[in-house]
Amino acid sequence: MEEKRISALKAIRIKCLDCCCGSSNEVKLCTVTGCALYPFREGHNPFTTKREWTEEQREAQRVRIAQNIHSVTREKTENHASEG
Which of 27, 26, 21 has the alpha carbon at shortest distance from 42? Predict the structure, then answer.
């Protein structure tokens, strides 16, 4: 059987749900502030901030994504052609 990989934040969320008998409301109302997982109990990292992108950075990212899409599509096409 293949193991399904999950992110650390999802694993923390699952642990918090386990600790609170599966109740997401109890996770939200948790009072165990001394727990190392407490800040992450809602399934997100409270210490990260939303990144502000300049227009140049956005355009560079669009170009990179487009290049990646084209290379993946090309690889699939080449692999499919070599199999047939």
Answer: 27
Separation between Cα atoms, residue 74 and residue 52, nearest integer Å: 32
Task: Quote the pLDDT of residue 84.
Answer: 58
User: b/e string for 30-51 if b means 16 or more Cβ within 10 A?
Assistant: eeeeeeeeeebbbeeeeeeeee
Structure-token pair, residue 40: 């992450």
Per-residue pLDDT averaged across 34-45, rounded?
92
What residue type is assigned to position 80 of the chain?
H
Return the C-alpha torsion angle 14, 20, 26, 27, nearest 10.
-30
pTM: 0.55
